[in-house]
Amino acid sequence: MTTPHVPVLAGELIEFLDPAPGAVAVDCTVGGAGHARLVAERIGAGGTLIGIDRDPLAEDRFADLASEVACETRFIRADFVTGLRRLRAEGVEADLIYMDLGMSSMQVDTWERGFSYSYDAPLDMRMDPSQERSAAMIVNGWEEHRLARLLRDYGEERYSGQIARAIVRARGRRELATTQELVDVIKGAVPIPAQFAGGHPAKRTFQALRIAVNDELAQIDEGLPLAWDLLTPGGRLAVISFHSLEDRRVKRFLTDRARGCICPPDLPICVCGHEPTAELLTRRAVAPTPGEVAANPRSKSAHLRAARKLRSEVTTP
Question: What is the rounded average pLDDT of the residues 186-207?
């Protein structure tokens, strides 16, 4: 048996997905396989669970799960855009698809992967250890203006310019190789009062670097339409996000598909004939309860959105 994994918003995810016996389910971000186990138990011996993840640790967790559940299982070692494209090319149709975005607790706790500012480790942050781009390559190779834009856009960092300038100065003396070296540079660039407000001063910089290393936002933008296309009518899509950059994309994608008439507001009657292809199951993002946050502080920023597919989208030639 593997070490028990505590999945975020697990009860809420299962409620909105409503897995039925015999269903075909796609877990786009296996991670520690906590959500996957709950889904597998509900779809039963007649169901199929397909797991996708680029992290080899997730593949190990999924293999353990596969040996313990009754449903048919399959694992695709890839980022979820690549995995979903493969399934679409095979003609797979899914009854439910879900994503748990961002990094997993498993990745944070593997200190040598360099995802956390709490441990001194190599500047890595790769979800797929075989890929070339790492956090060290960005920190030591990108120009100052590009670094500043990255920290501003992906980290929503107020002091992006100061931090980028400090990084360039520091790497001019010696290449930055570890998380602690980067944390020290960040602390030196951020005003003292700001270091005691809004969490750890390196939090936003590390978020921005991780997103850039793993191309996470592009994955969401490309992956959501692929997932929606794989769903059968009546199928359900659920996504758990952990910061506003992710959640805004999920919200926009689902609300666009739940929208009916798209005529200009000054037209007296609808002439577009546009009908919604989604029913929103969550009118607003679902957050963890205070009890869950107390038991698992990492769940604090989680938000869940879900929708049911009403019909396939019709495209005109």
Answer: 87
Whether residue 206 sits in one domain with residue 300: no
**Pair 185, 192: CB distance under 8 Å:** no
Question: Is the Cβ–Cβ distance between 304 and 11 less than 8 Å?
Answer: no
**Residue 314: per-residue pLDDT:** 55
For residue 1, being part of any structural domain is answered with: no
Specify the pLDDT at position 102.
Answer: 80
Instruction: Report d(CA 8, CA 34) in Å as an integer.
Output: 9
pLDDT in tens, 291-305: 999 999 889 999 999
**Domain range for residue 144?**
110-214
CATH number, domain with residue 162: 1.10.150.170
Shared domain check, 82 and 146: no
pLDDT at 275: 84
pLDDT at res. 49 = 98
**C-alpha–C-alpha distance, residues 225 and 127, integer Å:** 22
Spatial separation of the C-alpha atoms in residues 131 and 129, rounded to whole Å: 6
**Count of positions (residues) in the chain:** 317
Orientation of helix 10-17 relative to helix 34-43, angle to 10°: 40
Q: H or E stretch including 238?
A: strand 231-241
Say yes or no: 304 and 221 in one domain: yes
